[in-house]
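User: Show me an example of a complex going from sequences to structure tokens.

Assistant: Sure. Here are the input components:
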Amino acid sequence: MSARGLLCLGLLASGCASIQKERGHAEVAALVEERLGRKTRWNQGTPEDAEVARHLDTLLMEDLTSDRAVEVALLNNPSLQSTYEDLGVSQADMVQAGLISNPSLSGSIGFPIAGVGVSEHEFSLVQEFMDIFTLPLRKRVATEQFMADTLRVAHEALATAAEVRKTYSEVQARQQLVELRRMVLTAAEAAADLATRQREAGNITELDLASERASAEEARLDLAQEELSLVEDREHLNRLLGLWGPRTQWKVSEQLPALPSQEASLERLESLAIRQRLDIDAARKQASLLWNALELARSTRYFGRVEVGVHTHRDADGPRLFGPTLTLELPIFDQRQALIAKLEAQHRQGERRLMELSINARSEVRAARARLLSLRMMAERYQRVVLPLREKVVEQAQLQYNGMQLGLYALLAAKREQVEAYRSYIEAVRDYWMARAELERLVGGRLPGQTTQPSPPETQPDHGQPRDGGTETPHEHGPQ
Amino acid sequence: MLATAGATLAGGALLLRGATAQAQSDVPGARKPREGSAADTGRRYARQDWQAPGVPGRDYRPVVVPNGTKLPWKAVDGVKVFHLVAEEVEHEFAPGLKAFCWGYNGQVHGPTIEVVEGDRVRFYVTNRLPAATTVHWHGILLPNGMDGVGGLNQKAIAPGETFRYEFTVRQSGMGMYHSHHDEMTQMALGMAGLFVIHPRRPVGPRIDRDFAILLHEWRIDVGTRRPNPNEMTDFNVLTMNAKAFPGTEPLVVRKGERVRIRLGNLSATDHHPIHLHGYQFRITETDGGRLAESAQWPETTVLVPVGSTRTIEFVADEPGDWAMHCHMTHHLMNQMGHEFPNMIGVKPGGLDAKVRTLLPGYMTMGQTGMGEMVDMGMAVPANSIPMMGGKGKHDTITMGGMFTVLKVRERLDGYGDPGWYENPPGTLAVAASTDELRRDGIDVSTTPAAEPGSPDGTRRG
């Protein structure tokens, strides 16, 4: 083999030989940014990490929004960071695939035992030759594998983002639910207060007083339960954001946003899911790389090992000999039929998985959209009908109270029911946003037609302005 | 077949008029009051069948029906012919409270029927209600088939039908009329009226002012627009001639006039002890007829039981504005809130502030009773009236419901409301002056000691 040939070989080898640390993650970051508008980062202990940490602190210092929470998670979620390491493993495999097997140098020296003659030596340099032909295909398979892994990692990042959004909505709603529970407690305390005063005046039985006080205590315990739920929801978000220590002091002061004005069409969502979902893309790549692996196996089925080399030999008394060597494996018994069959099966398996995933994705999108529409209907029904009705009930109860038809107990009961209706409404809005995050995950990115965040809806019962004398015309229920 | 039989048995005589009407004397019980019955006043007429229609002014002094109307009639061949139309009526109980009731001829209650003993009366009753109805002539002596009990005495008058009732009035005094078909519903919705019968010839001292009042009770929940006929006991609108105070018209009388007040009670369950201030009166009639003078007790309160009438008489010799009302205290309230907790003596303290964080319009009420509510002017539900309160001359009158005022004046310009009474100097209760208190040795800072109830307890100055 000429020197030129060796050089060629060397270059070929070095072309794939280096490991680039950021390789893969850049693609992940691009994929995620394309879909969420937020960057991910793989912390690898570089000086830039400190900058990221500072950025993180800035993000957490300000009021935490849904988008900021997603950004923090993409930068800091520990599970995501460990998933990023998969890229390193995958990339190593890819580099490995691009490496030509090393040439083997063998030598032997034979010494005359009887002391007669000279020693005999033989050297050979042998290179596995088939590699050179299969290398591009192998590289392609490995690259595809790497790409599939990249997609999978990006998919994980998107799933994490969806989870963050859901949990964020939960925290947001829970804060409001706690506030409402507090109002229920205030109402129950007022009733118990009245009962105490009535009892002091000698107007009610001890039984009535005890009942009112018991109700107030129950309201207090309900509030404690709700507050615990808030802590739990916050901690769930802390885990997703990978936070501990002082960084857990973030605040959410925004209320749940109002529902967006319209929903994207179903057809559009299904095709969007098939087009942009990364796990489907990964499955597609997986099927294709299995096909390439199969091709590789098929195209080399009749080739055994081919080793080409040079050897030099010097007999004890003969001249020095120099010449090429060729070793050919004879594919008589093993024609890779087993490997090919396995790869064929795996390829079919991959195709079917892709099919399954696509069907499931469409179905999941349909189900999630149905849930979304249903929750939208509920939330809107609450907002447009139930809440105004509850407000009217309170207003009319107040008028009946003014006419001394109802007592404070009945009036407070009306208020409590109004607050409960607000609770149900907030739960519906929360569930809507959680369903929306889920739908986003299922279509593999933000939903079409989404613009800026809509203004927050009224998610607190009207504390109201003091009404002078009151009017009996009901107020239109509108934002405060 | 049935119709023929009916006509023969009950209506046969009634279909005949003029001279042939003499035939009715053959109908048992149709000719004269039964011997010894309450309607048998002991007087006898030469002609025991019906007489020429009694005419107001000549044969009787018409009654005054405060807030009410009278049923017009025309004489047809010597018979007084009336037409009652049963129909739905929107009625105002007091300013601020209107409801859809059932009544007659656009009135609630129905117009007062006023006839004279011996009149032959014929009532056409047209039913414009969505349900069948009848008219029962309460306390009136008449042939059985005219008594108006649906199913028992007649077939009920179906919507759109007109029935005829006809009989000769053979008594004097006060009766009433009301539906007797599904009467719980129909009376609860207002289908009732007064039936005044003057004697053919005057009985007792001459009466100058003759008032007729029908007492009734209703359940109209605050903010609703129809009486609830399902209510059995818990009534909240108590009326005189279907008006609750401050919707009641006063009874106006000139000083020295002899006054008669006829009270009928068609409440569902409540008797009404009607108390008149300023006078003693005598009960001169019950719904059975005139009482013997020896049986007329002096009273200041007359109990008018459910389904009964009572007539009282007195001479209005003391001028002034005199209250006349049911003495059952909750009958002196409009649309009482029975769900309101007992707040008397409750000290609100910080309660108001606490509740206002939830309900900005809240104010604790009722700690000293309900009187304060009248003047607070807080918004109340539409179509409702305050539980109590009407303007009086000196202050708010903390009453409602079955309350009216007898206004006795020296001089009157007609019988319209003469306004509030001007109390002559020295005849009005006023705040005591310090000088007076000192003069009479009254120390308002102490509670006077109670004396033992023994006969030898000495009085200290």
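The lines above are the inputs; the final block is the predicted structure for all two components together. Residues 1-16, 464-480 of chain A have pLDDT under 50 and may be disordered.
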